[in-house]
Amino acid sequence: MRKFTVLLALVIALGQWGCQFHAGDDFKSYYQMNQLDDVYREQRITRPDYELRKGAAEIAFILY
Fold first, then answer.
1. pLDDT of the chain along its 64 residues, tens only?
2. What pLDDT, on the 0 to 100 scale, is given for residue 40?
3. Distances in Å between the alpha carbon of 14 and those of 2, 11, 32, 37?
4. What is the per-residue pLDDT for 42?
5. CA 43, CA 21: separation in Å to the nearest integer?
6. How far apart are alpha carbons 1 and 3 in whole angstroms?
7. Is the dihedral of CA 18, 22, 25, 27 positive or negative?
8. Rounded distance, CA 52 to CA 32, Å?
9. Distance CA 25, CA 29 (A)
10. Pairing with 17, which of 3, 9, 10, 39 sits 20 to 30 Å away (CA)?
11. Residues 64 and 30: beta-carbon distance below 8 Å
């Protein structure tokens, strides 16, 4: 019974770490999209380049 309890605690701890890691990726993707929007609004990149980068960021978000 003790081994089961230790194993269960370990699984829960690893699960929480995974969720925290994934949440960090979500925030990074959100920040990257906002930064890209700001760069486009400041007219530092063209519309086709903006669409290309936005598509790449969305694909990266889906893959993670």
1. 788 787 777 677 666 655 555 556 677 778 888 899 999 999 998 999 998 988 888 777 666 5
2. 92
3. 18, 5, 27, 35
4. 93
5. 33
6. 5
7. negative
8. 14
9. 6
10. 3
11. no
